[in-house]
Amino acid sequence: MSDRTFSLEDPPNTDEFNNSSSSSILRQEQSTLECRIEHIPFYSWIESNLILLRTNLTQRGLDEQEIFDKEQTIIHNLKTCLQELNESERKENDTIQTRVRAILDECRYLNRLLKLDYSIENIANENLSLLEQLNQANDLLDRINQVLKTKIEEINQLKIIEEKLCHKLEEKMINFDNEVDDMPYDQRQDILEKHINDLQNLQNERSSAIEQARNQIHEMKVELDLDDTYNQPNDDPQVLHLIDGPVHLIELSKSNVQRLLTVANQLHAKYQANRMKAEHLVTTLNALYERLNLIESDRHIKLPLDKPHRSVNLNLLEKEIERCKELRRQNMRTYIENIRDEIFAQYEKCFYGREQMESFLPLYSNDFTEELLEEHEKELEEINMYYIHNEQLFTNLANWHEVWAEYREFQRQASDPERFKRRGYSAVQEEKQRKHLEFTLKKVQDTVLQLSKDYEHEFGHQFLVEGVIVQDFFNHEKENYSQEKEIEKARKQLARGQTPTMTHAQANIKRLEISSKTPGRQQTNLGKETEIKPITPFRPASAIHRR
What is the pLDDT of residues 301-319, one digit of tens each? Predict the structure, then answer.
């Protein structure tokens, strides 16, 4: 045996190693030494086989160099094999680390989407082996996937509800595309729940709209005396299904709701048209009855008529109107004179002046024909519309006349010296009443003036009262009242034999001086307003109305 060789047949004693010169190195690298000691049998086996190989090669006759080359080849192959094994194990470790990182990344991603608070960073710890890290990462992923599965089931249940509602309402579903992959599942669930809530509200609205439309259509069917087709085209049975079909089978689509509403609105418009027509026919018939002076027995229809808009009643009204028109043609003069009474009564309500009344020339015609009747009816309709449109103005004017008459009567009583002798007279109460009347009179007058300005702004011309503008009318009324007071004062002075005071009513006072010689006439004419005589050209005898 050469100096380079030594026997390793038996494993060396551990005590011998401790006593050797390398014991200090072994103590410094204890872990490495322990591993190497465990591998000593393997090393011994390799060495024994190398010795055996050398013996065989020597017997063959190879020289030392050739034997050394053979040994180096074997050692190189052994090194290469060990390196390949080490590289393979290293790659396996890298693979495990990659898997651990991928699993932890997925855990972080799901942890954020599910808003969980699982601890992830503690797993990637150097104190744990790679397999332990892999096992803990897989366990954590399994727990998160269990939560994810539950959340997805909840979202899928919401999607099923949403799909049913969208199919019934013909609305679009919400699709979470790639842009919302990072959206937390709670937010997706909130969006779905809100959409479902909106769809349910829409369903309730459309159900209510369909129910109301169906009820309205069924009501119009009775009011309009319709058959089961509701005046709808026969080639569209879908509409009849929407009207009379089971409610739970009707799709609550926007188009179906619109179709029902269209039918309901059409029938309601026809119903309103029939009501307006019935109202016009009743008004016409009532006017014919009044103008023809028909007694109760001669009136074939008793007014007011119950539900005149029904088809049967409309036909009855039209037939009765035709009958009354025939009577009107037979009594044209009386009928037109009665309309003239109505026209002049309306003139009074609208405070027309003489020139305004005379502008309607057919009032003075004695040619009682259909054409004259049409002109009178047209004038009556226009003056009625004029009054209706300005009713507020005319009402305030009438109120002003009432307050004005009350104020004049108050002034007359307040100027009577005998009032002081009446029992219960109070000067304080009299002054209070005076202020109240003056305030009310001014307030109503201001209202009339403002309404007349609104009228002028709307129509572009001034509003007239008895033929003059409103302000002039008020001024004339007050001037006339002042003149009447002066005339009354002058009359009293003349009665006492005194000379009246000369004022702007001088002409009237001179007339009083002349008439003072005939006291009887003076007592009957003075202080009275001029009356309209039946022969007044702008007002027939049948149309005299005094305010």
Answer: 888 788 888 888 899 999 9
